[in-house]
Amino acid sequence: MSARAAVLRVLAALSVAAAALWLAFDRDTINAASLARAVHDLGPWAPLAHVALFAVATVLFVPGAVFGVAGGVMFGPWWGTLLNLAGATLGATASFLLARHLVGDWARRKAGGRIEKLVAGVEAEGWRFVAFTRLVPLFPFNLLNYALGLTRVPLGHYLLASLICMAPGTLAIAWLGHAGRSAIAGDGAALRYALIALALLAAAAFLPRLARRLRARTELGAT
Description:
single chain, globular, mainly alpha, 0% strand
């Protein structure tokens, strides 16, 4: 290992440790409302702060729904979706790289026996299996990011499949946050926003079933 690589690993470990300490002390107070207030106070830096916090939280196994709803509350459904997707994708990529280059043994123990099924799926289908696992919750999202780092899927394939297949759920959660904010503010359009959010959540929930059917048809066609 080169000196530069060793330094990068140490810096990465220190950064994760510092963020873990911060979240450990504040985990009980993290919710969509408090997060939105804290980030909103940063003014023009708020979007960047939201993306960075979402990414760090993903690495540290903090539930992403809190940040997803907060993004919709602060930035609206469209910008909220883009910023949430950026944060989730950065965090997922960081977890993937940490597992591949720094904490592979820990990630393998954390994943347990399910890692063999995951590795076999990636070996057989490559990026298509990554896309399938993003749509069908075989693994918890935060753990899946680390587990996929233990496979041989190329980073580019992992990144693109994750980005595309996380988008529907991210959009639904951002709309949910936006609808909640509108309801609190007494906006007459709050009901319409809530219906949009529910429709998107229903569509996102249906996608795993559709993915299973398409995968089953593919397997039958291959035989």
